[in-house]
Structures are given as structure tokens and as C-alpha cells.
Write a structure and sequence with these properties.
single chain; 317 residues; alpha/beta; 6-stranded parallel beta sheet; 9 helices; globular; disordered N terminus; binds adenosine-5'-diphosphate; binds the ligand Nc1ccn([C@@H]2O[C@H](COP(=O)(O)O)[C@@H](O)[C@H]2O)c(=O)n1; uridine kinase activity
Length: 317
């Protein structure tokens, strides 16, 4: 079993309760960032090989290795995508060619299912429940994540919140990577999806803060008006969070209070990923791969971890 991916090692190093009072005072606004390239369908097809004819920029034998798959759950506007973006930034993965990235981030929102005409009318009135598990195409999520774990390049839909539907003729190309972050409100809800993750993070941000962030975001970025945002929140978002999202917190390995403000938690996760990447590189240079997530920590191989969080990054009381 890979020593690096023994969860015990990571958890032992992070088990201490972390004092955060001086570190978490700053409130910063971050912009969403796609960690994969967005292309039209034709563009996506022409990208099947990476630069210099190497498959996705990687050398023979490497593309088949299982990426380390990290699930990132949490309520709406808790900071899931911002946490993922922070991780990517700290690993120097943002300003680089998508095909060359070692770490990529994917949103569950790309997998909202297509609505029927009647549902579309409801959605336009803010009367469709986008926070219910039925709103997602979970089969497509499972298939995509399995393809990713098999080291395959895949194209995923681009979602438009303004039209409540997929953008026609557009896809996001996800190139094989060493680490894949998959974030969304219900990524731990479906057992078949949940069991694919090697590590599960839950971004735990206060509900008032989340609502205060969601209102301007939905108005400015998702084409909604105030009344619609508040009605949707009270009728669907909040009840569904309590029924479907919050109960999945128990599946998390790491709970990140305050999201992207929690730099200590993010740094620990980044450090863990750095060690994984360095170890994988070293083993590849030796011509072997001992860093494929091991059966003990890899649900892909059927082993399960206990459903209790191992680590809390917690402010002392
Ligand atoms: N730590 C933070 N401080 C201030 N604003 C934040 C912070 N984290 C996220 N935001 C803002 O809150 C909104 C929701 O954040 P986002 O990361 O998209 O959440 P999620 O992916 O969980 O929906 C965005 O407008 C983002 O810029
Ligand atoms: N057409 C849609 C699709 C989704 N939503 C809301 O988005 C939220 C999930 O995205 P986060 O970035 O906030 O995690 C979810 O709460 C849905 O209500 C929407 O409003 N319209």
C-alpha cells in the first residue's frame, strides 16, 4: 500500500485543532475559474492529442494511472469552487495550458439534466427545484468519473444558469490529470458517486454568509432578480440543503469551516497533493507507479472508509 496515501499519515499530521483567529479575518472575493478548457464540439474533438503528438501532453504509460479523485461538497455559495480555485492556484495550475495540468477541477453543475418544456417554464419562474438530487444526471456523472479514473480524456457539458440548460454545441475537455477535484452541493449524496472518491472534503460555511453571497452572485452572474433568488432560496434551496446536502457532511474526511478563508486547511490539503505529485513523479522516473491510490483508500477497488470525519480544522472555543 502506498505510504503516501495512507490516510492515517495525512490525518495524523492534521489532527491538531488549528487556531485560526489571526489567519481567517480577511474576507476576499474570488472569481470562479474553470479548470478545464471550454471548447466547441469540433474544437474538443481536435484536441484529442496534446502538444508534440504526446497523448494529452503525457508520456507513454502514464495516462493509464488512476488519478487521485477528491470530492468537494458543501451548501450553495459555501465557497466550494473558490476552495478548488485556491488549491489550483497554490499548486501553480491556473496559468498553464489545460492539457498540461496535473490538477483539474470539475463542477457538478455541469451535470444538471436537461429539463422538459414544462419544467423549463417552472425554472424561469424560480419554481424548479435545482437542489433536489433528481435535478442531476447522476448516471452521466458516474460514467464521467469512471472514465476519468480510467485515465481517459472526456468532454463534459457547459451549463448556463441564465437559460437553465446546457450550452448547445459546447463542451469542456477534461484531460487526464494526476489529481481531479469534483465539487458540488450533492457530490456525496449518490452512493455510487460518493464511493468513487479517494478523499472527501466538506466546505462548511455559515448559512447566513452563504445566503449573503448567493444573492449578489445570482443577481450579477446568473441573471436573477432579488425576489426570485429569495423565493427560490426559501422554497427549495434551504429545505433541500437540510434534507440532502447537510446529512452528507458525515461522509467527509476533512471539514473546512469558512471555506477559502481557512488558509490553514487549504495549505494542509495542498501539501498533501504536493507530496502525492512529487511521489508519483519520482516513481514514474523509476519506471514504476506506487502512487496509484491503494485499495485501502481507494473505493474504486471496493474498500470503504468509516463514515465519520477524521479531521476537523477547528477554531478553539
Ligand atoms: N472567502 C470568501 N470571502 C468572500 N467571498 C467569497 C469567499 N468565498 C467565496 N466567495 C464568493 O461567494 C460566492 C460563492 O462562492 P463559490 O466559491 O462560487 O461557492 P460555491 O462553489 O460553493 O457555490 C462567489 O461570488 C465568491 O466570489
Ligand atoms: N439553473 C440553475 C441551476 C442551479 N441553480 C442553483 O445553483 C446551486 C448550485 O450551485 P453552487 O455553485 O451554488 O453550488 C443550487 O443551489 C441551485 O439552486 C440555479 O439556481 N439555477
Amino acid at each position: 500500500m502506498s505510504a503516501l496515501f495512507s490516510s492515517r499519515r495525512f490525518h495524523a499530521s492534521a489532527r491538531a485543532f488549528v487556531s485560526s483567529s489571526t489567519l481567517f479575518g480577511t474576507s476576499r472575493r474570488f472569481r470562479h475559474g474553470m479548470a478545464a478548457s471550454v471548447a466547441s464540439s469540433s474544437e474538443a474533438k481536435s484536441n484529442s492529442n496534446g502538444p508534440n503528438g504526446r497523448y494529452n501532453g503525457r508520456i507513454n504509460g502514464v495516462e493509464g494511472k488512476t488519478p487521485f479523485l477528491i470530492g468537494v461538497a458543501g451548501g450553495t455559495a459555501s465557497g466550494k469552487s473558490t476552495v478548488c480555485k485556491r488549491i489550483m492556484e497554490k499548486l501553480g495550475q491556473v496559468d498553464m495550458d489545460h492539457a498540461q495540468r496535473q490538477v483539474v477541477s470539475i463542477s457538478q453543475d455541469s451535470f444538471y439534466r436537461e429539463l422538459s418544456p414544462a419544467e423549463k417554464v417552472k425554472a424561469e419562474r424560480g419554481q424548479f427545484n435545482f437542489d433536489h438530487p433528481d435535478a442531476f444526471n447522476d448516471e452521466l456523472i458516474v460514467q464521467t468519473l469512471k472514465d476519468i479514473l480510467a485515465g481517459k480524456k472526456c468532454d463534459i457539458p457547459v451549463y448556463d444558469y441564465r437559460t437553465n440548460s446546457r450550452c448547445e454545441n459546447q463542451s469542456i475537455t477534461i484531460y487526464p490529470a494526476d489529481v481531479v477535484l469534483f465539487e458540488g452541493i450533492l457530490v456525496f449524496y449518490f452512493p455510487e458517486i460518493r464511493d468513487l472518491f479517494h478523499m472527501k472534503l466538506f466546505v462548511d460555511t455559515d448559512s447566513d454568509t452563504r445566503l449573503a453571497r448567493r444573492v449578489p452572485r445570482d443577481i450579477n452572474e446568473r441573471g436573477r432578480d432579488l425576489e426570485q433568488v429569495l423565493n427560490q432560496y426559501m422554497n427549495y434551496v434551504k429545505p433541500a440543503f437540510e434534507e440532502f446536502c447537510l446529512p452528507t457532511k458525515k461522509f467527509a474526511d476533512v471539514i473546512i469551516p469558512r471555506g477559502a478563508d481557512n488558509t490553514v486547511a487549504i495549505d494542509l490539503i495542498v501539501q498533501h497533493i504536493r507530496e502525492f505529485l512529487a511521489n508519483r513523479k519520482q516513481n514514474q522516473m523509476k519506471g514504476e507507479d506506487q502512487t496509484t491510490p491503494s485499495p485501502a483508500t481507494s473505493p474504486v477497488h471496493g474498500a470503504r472508509r468509516p463514515n465519520t470525519p477524521d479531521v476537523y480544522f477547528k477554531r478553539p472555543h
